[in-house]
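User: Some background: our group keeps a shared notebook of sequences we're curious about, and every so often someone picks one and asks for a predicted structure to add to the entry. Today it's my turn. The entry only has the sequence so far, pasted here. Could you supply the structure so I can complete it?
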Amino acid sequence: MTADGAAAGADNPLGVSRGHVCVVTSAHPCDDVRVSSRLVAAFLRAGYRVTWVGPDRAGYVGKAHGMAGVEYRLFPVADRRKDRILGPWRARRLARGVRDVDWWYSPDPDSAWVITGNAQRQGGRTIFDIHEVYHRGLLNRWWPGGEPPQIIRRTVQRIIAKICSRVDLVLGVNEAVLSPYAVSGSSTLVVRNCAPFEFSEEQRIEEAADGPVGVMHGKVSSGNGTSQVIRAAQLLESEVSSHISIRMLRRPEAAESAFDRQVASMAAELPHDAVVLQASVSHAEMPRLMSQCTVGMIAYQRDLGIESLPNRFFEYMASGLAVLAPSYSTGIVAIIESEQIGITADFEDPASIAASLTWLARHPTEVREMGNRAREAFLKRHNWDTEAAILIDCMNNM
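Assistant: Of course. Here's the predicted structure to add to the notebook entry:
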């Protein structure tokens, strides 16, 4: 039985309708990994009807086509920064036309205000899903110069805490993102970004004993440690660089950006295949790409990395990859150490990254054993079905 079938049987054995969930987002694309591939899929399997209100865009390939079984009410987008400002108002207008909602769900602070207002007018309960510590690293990315005044940070924190006090259930990817905002009396639940079982079903492509170690970096992005990783590749000894092949995925909409051109120029100066730039793919195609690698890399800097516990970490585990992660990512490091599935580096220091890549290239047997343990730990303790069951049970009993 597939993971989808197993989850459907466990969550909704009689096919009984649980009610109606309305997702309201000002910014998330229709194919967002956590919101769409994880949570919406879990709602559908559990028997909920789902309506999605949000921007008409996809995060991966081409225009969003959506998921079967979901009713989409989308507003057009053109300019990313302008759309981010106007998104809550556009979502609010469309969400007002959605009727008979049992649960309003939002993954954005600005659209969380929308769902609380809708619930007051139309009824239904509310879920606010916190993905980031907004007033720290994420705010740095938006603020000119990257260092907002403390009064701005405290104001953002208080606003989000106020939102949490007004919703029925606050979700968080881990305790680190919940703790700054959870207030006394709020119902909170950690729902980690674990991967579904299908990520573990792709047949592994075994690398040749004398071939390069395939390392999945992920999306080319200034916030994803791409520059630091390429600089690390430049520091590798020739014997090591010939045994490392780092995969980086280029998003179509960023292909002509100044940063993307800089990355392409830097990669071209490296030995052949030390860094491989390829087109990004849909989330459904990622298991196939990961099956061609041995190591999964998470290269966040400290501003986002300290509290991060991202989707990719669990997808790497499901795919049987050893993990190379930031030494300062407390949640990731705790799992790496307890499950013995990888090593760490300081991803703000290219020399530290290069030292870790060198170790991986020179210890292929240990790397394969780490990958095997990662997949086993995923199947037993770190899969999405376990997380989804906790959420659905909570919703059904509130």
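Suggested note for the entry: Residues 20 and 101 are 5 Å apart (CA to CA). The first strand starts at residue 19 and ends at 24.
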